[in-house]
Amino acid sequence: MSEGPWQSDHPRVRFAALLDIENTAIVGGRLLQAPQRRDLLNTLHRALTGMPVRVATGTHVLKATMSDLPRGWGLSLVPTQPDAADLALIEAGLQLAGCGVTDLVVLSGDHAFVALAAHSRLHVITRPGQLSNALRLAATTVTYLPAPQTLTPARATA
Q1: Which among 92, 100, 152 has a CA at the least distance from the CA of 108?
Q2: Which of 2, 20, 11 is CA-nearest to residue 100?
Q3: Which residue from 45, 99, 120, 145 has the least number of CB within 10 angstroms?
Q4: Tens digits of per-residue pLDDT, 57-114?
Q5: How many structural domains comprise the chain?
Q6: Does some domain include residue 52?
Q7: What's the domain range around 119?
Q8: 21-51 tens-digit pLDDT
């Protein structure tokens, strides 16, 4: 995952990323253990270098991941409610598209992000089995994260 379609030299193409950390760091109801979270976030940081990144999460996952989040990534702290992170990221995506972003890298498989396809090209990064059919159809590209090896129980999330 060192390079992707978002690595563009075309001057009119502008990328930004939206990271639903809960959909990325929680798999099968379990939170990745610290070494796996760190590896995942480091890999994402390398892949997303050069673009603005917005992360949304609730307090429980933030406490577990805060020290591993790369500097410079924007953070939206959301209430522990269903779809709260998705809604915050969709709002951020609409603002980014309004500022000229042409391509959004969405790190989630949730169908809610389909709404952004009317405003920019979507490049989805998700885990196998977590991609909604609607988002798969709306996406310009789809990249699958590798399966995690070691998991710990997760707490309630947004």
Answers
A1: 92
A2: 11
A3: 99
A4: 988 888 888 888 888 999 999 998 888 999 999 999 999 999 999 999 999 999 999 9
A5: 1
A6: yes
A7: 15-153
A8: 888 888 888 888 888 888 889 989 999 999 9
